[in-house]
Amino acid sequence: MLKEERQQTILNEVELHNRILLTDIAETLDVSIDTVRRDVKELDSEQKLRKVHGGAISLGFTTSSTRNTNIYALAEKTRIAEKALSLLKEGSVFFVDGGTTCLELARLIPADLELTCFTLSLPVAMELSSKPKVTVIFIGGQISKDAQISIGANAIHNLSEIKVDFSFIGTGYVDSQYGLTEFDWDIVQLKKAVIKSAKKTVLLCISEKLNSQHRYKTCDLNAINTMITELEPENDLLKSFRSHDIRLL
Amino acid sequence: MLKEERQQTILNEVELHNRILLTDIAETLDVSIDTVRRDVKELDSEQKLRKVHGGAISLGFTTSSTRNTNIYALAEKTRIAEKALSLLKEGSVFFVDGGTTCLELARLIPADLELTCFTLSLPVAMELSSKPKVTVIFIGGQISKDAQISIGANAIHNLSEIKVDFSFIGTGYVDSQYGLTEFDWDIVQLKKAVIKSAKKTVLLCISEKLNSQHRYKTCDLNAINTMITELEPENDLLKSFRSHDIRLL
DNA sequence: TCTATCAATGCAGTTTTTTGCAAGTTTTTT
DNA sequence: AAAAAACTTGCAAAAAACTGCATTGATAGA
After folding, report:
1. A72 touches chain B (CB under 8 A)
2. How many angstroms separate the CA atoms of B90 and A46, rounded?
3. pTM of the model
C-alpha cells in the first residue's frame, strides 16, 4: 500500500467520523502505529486534520470565522476590549455579555490564558470555542434573533444558579443620573440576572452612549464597579461619572 | 514495445485502479523498473498522473484540495437533509443534533415554515437564528471545542426537562447488529438523553457509515424510528436494516 | 555499406525515504 | 500515587530513487 493511499484513507475516516484513534487506524490498515502516527503528524502540518493525543479530529466547521468586518466604531471597541483584558488573570471565572464590544473582547483573549467563561451569546461562544485553554459554558434559553443571545425565563433561571468573579456587560444607554437603561424589557430582565450572578460588574461602553437614556432601567450606576470606555479616565466627558463610586478605565 | 504504447498502458492502469505500483508495472510490461520510473516521471511532468514514492496515483483520486473548504460528501448530506425536510410540518416541535448533516438540514429549512427547534449545536443555532419564523431554543452547557456543541451533566439535565415530537440525530457509527455507536463516552450520554426526550427519533446518516462500529453504544437500532440515507430505500446496502422495525427514507 | 549520432534502456553504486522496533519520557487514567 | 497508554527519539533494515555509465538499435548522411 502506498503512503499516499494510506493518508487518503486516514483523511477519509476522519472526515467521516469526525474523530479517529491511531490504534484503530493502525489495525484496519495493518501497519504499525508509528507509521500512522507519522502520517497523522504530516497531515496535521498540512492542515488537513488536527492531531490530538491518541488520535486525530476533523477540522470540520471550526475554522469558519464569523468575522463581520463592518462593525460600527470598531477601533473604539477594540480599545475598550484591550483595557478589559487587563482585568483577566490566569484562572479567572467570568461572564461575557453579547454585543459587538464584548465580542471584540472575546476575540482578543490570548490563547495561552486558562479561563472559565460563561456567556449567553452565540457569536461569543463560537469565538471562544476556538481558544484551547478557555472553558466555555453557554447559558441556554430561547435565542433572540436580532441579538443572537439566550433570552427568556429559562436563561434567567440558569443565570440564577451561577456566581462568577466578574462579568463584562454592555448596555444600550447609560447616564450618570439614570444609570443603565435599555430599549427592551426582556433584555433588562436578563441584565439584572447577569449583574446578580457576578461579584463585580464591569461595564464596557463607548463614549457615544454616555448621557443617553431609554425606557426601561437595568440598574443604578453604583451597581457597576468598573466602567471602561475608549477615553482616558481623565477625560472631561467622564466628569459626571467621577462622583460615583466607580473605577474608570 | 514502443515507449508511447507503454506510457499509455501505465496511464490506463492508473485510471482503472486509481493507483499503481512501479514494481507491478515493471513486471507486467517486462521492462526494468528504471524505465517505468522514467516513464512515470515524464507523465507526472505532463500532469497526466501524480508520481509518489513507490508508484503513482490518478489525479482524480486526490480530493485533498477541495477538502478543507468544503464539507465532506456535501452532495450526499444535502440529499439526506432534503428528505428529512419532508417530515417537518407547520408548527412542528423538534430537536436538531450537531454535525454537518444536521447543519445542512438547518440550512435548508424554508423561511415560511413556523417551527420550534431545540438544539445543542452552536452552528445550528446560528444558522436557525436567521430564519424569522423558527423559534430556536438552545440547550446550555459546557461547550465542546471540537464539535461546538453543549456537553456535560448540565446539558443532559436540561434535555431531561423537554419533550419534542421528534429529533434528528447523527451518529459516528451505525451497524444493523450493534446499533448506534460512538467514539466518545460523553457524546453517548448526550445522545441517550436526546433520544429519551423525543417521541420519535430520526437518524440522518450517509451510507458510508453503514456497517461500522466503535467502542461505546448509544442505542439499539430499534430505538430509531426512521433512518435517512442518501440512498434509495430499495438499495441493497440497506438490506440488513430492513429486518428491523425502521422506516427507511 | 559504413559510421557517427542519439534516444532509449538497463545496470551498479550511492543516497534518500519509508518503516518498524526499542528505550526512555510524558500524558492520561484509575 | 501507580499503571497504562501514548509520545519521542534514535537506529537499522529494506525499498525506492537517483546518478553516471555502458549497451543497444534505429537512423541519417557520407
Report:
1. no
2. 46
3. 0.86
B32 Cβ contacts chain D strand, under 7 Å: no
Q: What average pLDDT does the structure give for chain B?
A: 92
Contact residues, chain A, for B183 at CB < 8 Å:
17-21
Average pLDDT of the residues in A168-181: 94
Cβ density class B25-35: b for 16+ within 10 Å, e for less: bbeebebeeee
B3 nearest nt, CA–C1': C8
In angstroms, the Cα distances linking A130 to A47, A59, A85 are 15, 11, 17
Check whether residue B27 has its CB closer than 7 Å to nucleic acid strand C. Answer: no
- pLDDT tens digit sequence for B25-58: 999 999 999 999 999 999 999 999 999 999 999 9
Which residues in chain B have their CB less than 8 angstroms from residue A154's CB? 137
Angle in degrees, 0-180, between the axes of helices B33-45 and B22-29, rounded to the nearest 10: 120
DSSP symbols for B133-167:
TEEEEE--EEEETTTTEEEHHHHHHHHHT--EEEE
Strand partners, B93: B116
